[in-house]
Amino acid sequence: MMTSLTASELNGEAKLFYLVGPSGSGKDSIINGLRSQLRADSNLLIAHRYITRAVDDSGENHIALSVPEFTHRKHSGLFAMDWQANGCNYAVGNEVNTWLSMGFSVLFNGSRQQIPLAEELFGERLRIIALEVDPSILAERLRKRGRESEHDISARLRRSEQYQASLPEECWRLDNNRNLDSTVSKLLKYIETETTELYIQ
User: Domain 3-192, what fold?
Assistant: First the structure.
């Protein structure tokens, strides 16, 4: 006999998957690949980020806000989490907390520097997923996208090494050096092992 879980049980099983990695590690590509593989009845939702940056060809399907719009939403309590990086403001909306309270698990593209804040906000629900890419491959990806000088790329690689070394021990490390489909499949399997089925026998 199949018995549905109560709303409170669903809420307790929901997880917050916090994807982090250095610039050029493939976070946007992985998220786009994950979207294409999710089933219609999936219990996982992918949250858009709100950013004070115009939509461009970077691959991220974010929601662009002006600085006044962002500030107004922040002061109105409409963000579940917000931070600053690379001269821009970033946030995820309170829909994340609503989805978690309804029993849906959520994944979003986070900041490695803001892991302590994410731990404070999401507690035991939090699952940190850290992308790992060899420095030579990361450097080549950064060159191909053509945004940074060689000096900037070298600086990014140094920061990446420092951040990777400082990641929490409990984070799950995901290799993204080669085949994107393989990486997405590994991510889906990990998410499945960390979440409970919506029905029990």
Answer: Rossmann fold (3.40.50)
